[in-house]
Structure formats: structure tokens, C-alpha cells
Amino acid sequence: MARGTILVTGGAGYIGSHVVLALGERGERVVVLDDLSTGRADAVLHGELVVGDVGDGALVRRLLRTHGIDTVMHFAARTVVPESVADPLKYYRENTCATRSLLEACAAQGVRHFVFSSTAAVYGVPEGGIADEDTPTAPINPYGSSKLMSEWMLRDLAATGALRHVTLRYFNVAGCDPAGRIGQSTPEATLLIKVACEVALGRRPELAVFGTDYPTPDGTGVRDYIHVTDLADAHLRALDHLRAGGASLTLNCGYGRGYSVREVIAAVERAHGAPLPVREAPRRPGDPPMLIARAERIREVLDWRPRHDDLDTIVASALAWERRLAQGAR
Ligand SMILES: NC(=O)c1ccc[n+]([C@@H]2O[C@H](COP(=O)([O-])OP(=O)(O)OC[C@H]3O[C@@H](n4cnc5c(N)ncnc54)[C@H](O)[C@@H]3O)[C@@H](O)[C@H]2O)c1
Ligand SMILES: O=c1ccn([C@@H]2O[C@H](COP(=O)(O)OP(=O)(O)O[C@H]3O[C@H](CO)[C@@H](O)[C@H](O)[C@H]3O)[C@@H](O)[C@H]2O)c(=O)[nH]1
């Protein structure tokens, strides 16, 4: 069967740009729709970039029609948990309402396949800090709620037979293209590994450890960090699954192992070769203590085989990219 063109929303952002690169390496036809609010045009190394809002229904319908798009990969979103606590309606507008508008356009134009960037934040505080795909969803911050509502809309639309979807619930994504072509360039980043690398290179004065009294082995927050290149591969496999006529799926994307904030700091110090200036700070609003994937299902169903499952590898690639940024790369 002929491969249709893929619309990648948010393809100029951190994760989206890595997936666009992987699609390009496979010779897929790609159109990126991104408003460049946190993404960068020069991170799009393949396909055509259209600058615009994913919530603009008329624009999306026109793109779907004129490019003959049969698959949408939807990354565009606001992604910062504490910001969602401070400004929840922004998250319901930019994540939930924009996704509703996108889905409406997809249904109207006959898009058949949809790959959705969801999040471990839909689980809230799962028992024991570990979640499989059947763990009840109970988000504890508006970011997680905004994404869960999007999941529900997608599920319900798929139930009408309009399209099939793979919903990928990412745990904590980190690291950069091992070949150093693109990386994480988010301005005013808040993600731990990115911030720690900026501190290592002197771009920030210190690293705040948000919470040292959690019920975790060393008192700091524990997360399951997954390399962005392995995550990009999961997207290609999701696409192949849908093209082969596979059923709609919801899958965790993680390695099934947790690292504390202190363990991440130690890994950055190993890669950097010097201690980081660290300050203990209060808990950050909206943060769960521990979030680790049970991630067997994606291996079984998509035959996903991660190749970068190692915290030191992840951190080394993030630090290498940060050095390039410091030298003026994108
Ligand atoms: N980074 C993580 O650890 C993580 C974990 C779980 C889920 N996710 C999800 O993955 C997706 C990508 O996240 P990221 O880390 O690459 O973030 P990012 O901010 O780097 O990428 C988001 C991209 O979407 C664009 N965008 C935002 N709003 C838009 C709009 N209304 N119209 C068009 N473009 C818009 C931005 O300019 C940016 O390029 C998001 O949906 C996020 O919720 C990320
Ligand atoms: O400067 C910092 C930044 C983070 N942390 C801690 O590090 C851990 C990880 O935080 P962060 O890297 O900000 O990621 P999360 O808040 O876990 O959220 C990310 O991971 C979620 C999936 O688990 C995604 O959905 C979100 O988009 C993404 O922001 C948490 O315990 C934070 O409190 C610090 O101590 N200091």
C-alpha cells in the first residue's frame, strides 16, 4: 500500500524534531505544523515546515486536504507541570481544546491513523510509584488532566470507526540525537537533566533539588528516564502497526527503572567531571514522588527494543548537546 504523507504537529520541538529526523531517515513524506512557541525552525531537518496553530481548524483542514495526509502524529502541547498548576486554563485551551479541534479536522478529512503524545502524568500517584497501562488514571496536575481528556476524545472518536490510534504515554524523556544533529533547545527549560547540564556548563548558577522529604530511598523524586532516540523508534513502530491494520493501542514508553534526582545529579557530575552547585528546595507543586513504567506491553506488541537504556548514555548525549548550544549551535 502507498505510504501517505504524515502531519507532525509540534515537529519543531524537542521530541517531535527527533521523530521527524527518524521519519526522514526512512524516506517518509512529512509536513510539520508548529507555531514555534517553544520549538525552533532549524530543528526541522526533514520535510516542510508550516508555521501555525494546531488549534486553527481551517488551516489544519487545508493542510490535510492539500497534502493528502492519512496519518497525524500529535506532539504540539504545553508541557510544563508547575506552569499548568499556575495557569490551568492555558493547558485546557492549548492541549485539550486544540486537540479537540485537530481531531474534528481529522475526522472531517478522513485521516486514518493517529499517534498521540500522552504522558505518565495521567497516572497521578500510582500505588508503589509504578504504573502499567491498566493502572487507574488519576492525574494530580492540570497538565496530566489536559492530556487525559485528549486521550478520552481520541478513544471515543476511534470507537466510531473514524480512525485508529496509538497513544504513547511517555515517561521522562531525555538525551539527544547521538549523532549530535539536533537536541533539546527549549528556552527556559525546566526538565531536570537539561537544567543540570546547563548548570554544569555555568549557564545557570545552581540546581535546585525540589523536595528532599519524599517517601523514596533518598528522599528525592524518582522518575523513569527514556532516551529520545528510543522513543522516536517507538513512534516508527506505532506507525507501522497502524499501517498494517493493527488495532488501537495505549502503551507506556519507559524503561521500567527509576532514578532519583540525586542519582541524576551524580550521573551529570560523572559526565562533566566535577561537582554541581546544588541547593535543597521545597517540593514543586504538582510533582508526584515516584513515577516508573511497567513497560512490557510495548515490547510485546510493537517488538520495541531500546538501544540507549542507560542513564550515563542519556546524560552524556544531553551534555554533549548542551556544549554545542554553548558554542552557538541551534
Ligand atoms: N519531554 C517529556 O519528558 C515529555 C513527557 C511526556 C509527554 N510529553 C509530550 O510530548 C510532546 C512533545 O513535548 P516536548 O518535550 O518535545 O516539548 P516541546 O515544547 O519541545 O515541543 C512542543 C512543540 O509544539 C509546539 N506547539 C506548542 N503549542 C502549539 C500550537 N498550539 N500549535 C502549533 N505548535 C505548537 C511548540 O512550538 C514546540 O515545537 C508534548 O505533547 C508533551 O506533552 C513530553
Ligand atoms: O530543576 C529541577 C527540575 C526537576 N527536579 C525534579 O526532578 C524530577 C523530574 O522533573 P522534570 O524533569 O521537570 O520532569 P517531570 O515534572 O517529571 O515531568 C516531565 O515528565 C512527565 C512524564 O513523567 C511529562 O509528561 C512532562 O511533560 C515532563 O515535564 C522531579 O522530581 C522534579 O521535582 C528538580 O529537583 N530540580
Structural overview:
This protein has 330 residues and is of the alpha/beta class. The protein folds into two domains: 5-174 and 225-253, Rossmann fold (3-Layer(aba) Sandwich), CATH 3.40.50; 192-223 and 256-291 and 302-326, Alpha-Beta Complex (UDP-galactose 4-epimerase, domain 1), CATH 3.90.25. Helices cover 39% and strands 19% of the residues. The chain contains ten helices and 15 strands. It has helices at residues 14-25, 57-66, 81-86, 88-109, 142-159, 192-200, 228-243, 261-272, 296-302, 311-326, and strands at 5-9, 30-34, 48-51, 69-74, 113-119, 130-131, 164-170, 172-174, 207-210, 222-223, 225-227, 249-253, 259-260, 278-281, 290-293. The strands form four sheets. Strands 3-2-1-4-5-7-12 form a seven-stranded parallel β-sheet, sandwiched between helices. It has a four-stranded mixed β-sheet with strand order 6-15-10-13. Strand 1, helix 1 and strand 2 form a beta-alpha-beta unit. Helix 8 packs across helix 10 (311-326). The two termini are 37 Å apart. The structure holds nicotinamide-adenine-dinucleotide and uridine-5'-diphosphate-glucose. Residues 6-254 form the NAD-dependent epimerase/dehydratase domain. Its EC number is 5.1.3.2. Homodimer. It catalyses: UDP-alpha-D-glucose = UDP-alpha-D-galactose. Belongs to the NAD(P)-dependent epimerase/dehydratase family.
Features of the shown structure:
UDP-glucose 4-epimerase activity; binds uridine-5'-diphosphate-glucose; 19% strand; binds nicotinamide-adenine-dinucleotide; UDP-galactose 4-epimerase, domain 1; 2 domains; 10 helices; EC 5.1.3.2; 7-stranded parallel sheet; alpha/beta; single chain
